[in-house]
Recover the amino acids of this structure.
C-alpha cells in the first residue's frame, strides 16, 4: 500500500507541473523517475520511450503507465496514470461546468511555457550524452531531426525512428550492450495478459462502431468516438483535434465555439492533451460524461501497452533487437531536439525577455541543481508578474 501511495503522490505532483506537451512531459519524467528516484535506469527509460513512440495514443502517458508498471505491476501502472491525469481532468471538467462562457485570461501561462523550454533543454543534454555519444548515433539523431522538421506528415516520426532502428539492427548490433540480468524481468506481466489485452483492443475497435451505428445511443456514440481517437492517433495530442471535431461538431453535440474554447483551456493546463476529452464529455453529458470520455480515449493506450510489454524483455535480449533499439534511441534524441525547436521554442521564445527568463530557469535547473518543482513555481511567478 505504501508503494502505491508513493506512486500516486509522485504522479500527481508531475501531473500538476508537467506543462509544455508530451516532449516536455518526458523531460519531467526523466528528471523525476530516472535522475532523482532511480525507479528505472536511463537505458530502460529510453527503450520504453522508443516503444511508446511507435504505439498510437498519448506517448507520454504510456511512458508514465510503463514506469508505474515497473514499480508495482498493472495496479501501479493504473495508479500512475490516474495521478498524472487527475489534475488536468479535474480542471477541464470544472472549466466546462463553470467557466466555459467566461473571458478568462491565460496569458500567465507564458511563464510555464518558459519552464518547459528549460526542462526539455536539460533532458536533451542528459539523454544526448548517453544515447548520441558517437559519430554514428549523432548522425542518426540529426537525420531524425531533419526528417521531423522538414517533412510535414503525421507519421514522419514513426517512419524516421523505423529507419534508424533498421540501420541499428544491421550496423550497430555489435555496439549494442546485451541485456543486463537485472533488467531480465523489467515488466512482470504474463504473455496471457498481453494476448488478452491485444485481443480486447482489436475487438472494441471493430465492435464499437457497429454498436454505435445500430443503437444511435449518445453514450455508445461517445465511447466509440473517443476510443477510436485514442486508438488511431499518431503524432501527439494535437492530432486528436481534427478527429474529435469531426465526430462531435457537425452532429451539433457541441458548438464549434465551445470546442475551440475548450481546446484553448486544454493548452493552458498541465498533463496530457488527451484530457481534452474530459472537457468535451462534460460539455455534452455532465460529470459522468467527462469521466466516460476520459476512460474511453485512454483505454487503447492501456490495452496496447499491456499487450506489448510482456514480450518486450524477450525482444530486447535479441542482439538484432538490441541494435534496433540503439538506433531508435539515437533517433529519440533527434525527435527531442526537433520538438524543442518547434513547437516549444517557436511558440514560446519571441522576445529578449522570453529568452532571458528561459536561460535563467535553465541555469537554475542544470547548474544550480534546483528541483523542477521550484522552477515551476518560479515560472508561475514570472508569468503572473511579467505577462
Amino acid at each position: 500500500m505504501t508503494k502505491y501511495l508513493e506512486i500516486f503522490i509522485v504522479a500527481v505532483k508531475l501531473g500538476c507541473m508537467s506543462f509544455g506537451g508530451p516532449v516536455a512531459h518526458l523531460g519531467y519524467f526523466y528528471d523525476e523517475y530516472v535522475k532523482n528516484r532511480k525507479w528505472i535506469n536511463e537505458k530502460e527509460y529510453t527503450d520504453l520511450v522508443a516503444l511508446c513512440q511507435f504505439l498510437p495514443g498519448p506517448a507520454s502517458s504510456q511512458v508514465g503507465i510503463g514506469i508505474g508498471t515497473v514499480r508495482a505491476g498493472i495496479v501501479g501502472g493504473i495508479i500512475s496514470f490516474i495521478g498524472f491525469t487527475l489534475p488536468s481532468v479535474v480542471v477541464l471538467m470544472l472549466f466546462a461546468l463553470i467557466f466555459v462562457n467566461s473571458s478568462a485570461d491565460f496569458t500567465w501561462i507564458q511563464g510555464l511555457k518558459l519552464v518547459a523550454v528549460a526542462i526539455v533543454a536539460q533532458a536533451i543534454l542528459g539523454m544526448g550524452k548517453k544515447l548520441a555519444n558517437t559519430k554514428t548515433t549523432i548522425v542518426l539523431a540529426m537525420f531524425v531531426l531533419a526528417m521531423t522538421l522538414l517533412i510535414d506528415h503525421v507519421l514522419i516520426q514513426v517512419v524516421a525512428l523505423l529507419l534508424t532502428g533498421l540501420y541499428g539492427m544491421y550496423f550497430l548490433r555489435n555496439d549494442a550492450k546485451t541485456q543486463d540480468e537485472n533488467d531480465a524481468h523489467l515488466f512482470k506481466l504474463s504473455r496471457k495478459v498481453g494476448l488478452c489485452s491485444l485481443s480486447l483492443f482489436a475487438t472494441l475497435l471493430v465492435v464499437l462502431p457497429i454498436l454505435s451505428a445500430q443503437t444511435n445511443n449518445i453514450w455508445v456514440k461517445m465511447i466509440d468516438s473517443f476510443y477510436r481517437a485514442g486508438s488511431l492517433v499518431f503524432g501527439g495530442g494535437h492530432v486528436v483535434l481534427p478527429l474529435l471535431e469531426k465526430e462531435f461538431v457537425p452532429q451539433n453535440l457541441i458548438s464549434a465555439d465551445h470546442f475551440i474554447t475548450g481546446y484553448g483551456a486544454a493548452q493552458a493546463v498541465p498533463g496530457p492533451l488527451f484530457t481534452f476529452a474530459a472537457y468535451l464529455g462534460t460539455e455534452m453529458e455532465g460529470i459522468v460524461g467527462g469521466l466516460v470520455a476520459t476512460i474511453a480515449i485512454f483505454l487503447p493506450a492501456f490495452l496496447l501497452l499491456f499487450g506489448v510489454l510482456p514480450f518486450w524483455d524477450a525482444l530486447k535480449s535479441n542482439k538484432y533487437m538490441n541494435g534496433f533499439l540503439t538506433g531508435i534511441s539515437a533517433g529519440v534524441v533527434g525527435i527531442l531536439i526537433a520538438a524543442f525547436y518547434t513547437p516549444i521554442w517557436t511558440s514560446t521564445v519571441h522576445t529578449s525577455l522570453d529568452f532571458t527568463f528561459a536561460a535563467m530557469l535553465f541555469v537554475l535547473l542544470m547548474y544550480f541543481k534546483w528541483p523542477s518543482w521550484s522552477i515551476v513555481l518560479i515560472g508561475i511567478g514570472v508569468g503572473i508578474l511579467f505577462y
